[in-house]
Amino acid sequence: MEPKCPDCGIIGVKHIVATESEERSQGGDPWFEIAHCDKCGHVYGVFPKIVHKPSIKVPSFE
């Protein structure tokens, strides 16, 4: 079964596209991508492209 946009009703995975954020890392990579409908712009989700390790060590509770 093909996905259907909840806002405009268009059907098909080909209408779910991703756009890179305008915000960029120091290296020029996008911070995140936005998955959205190419017809009406309904946003399905925002996904990180750059993930950093924690800057502090979390203590272990073992």
TrEMBL record:
This is Transcriptional regulator. It comes from Peribacillus asahii.
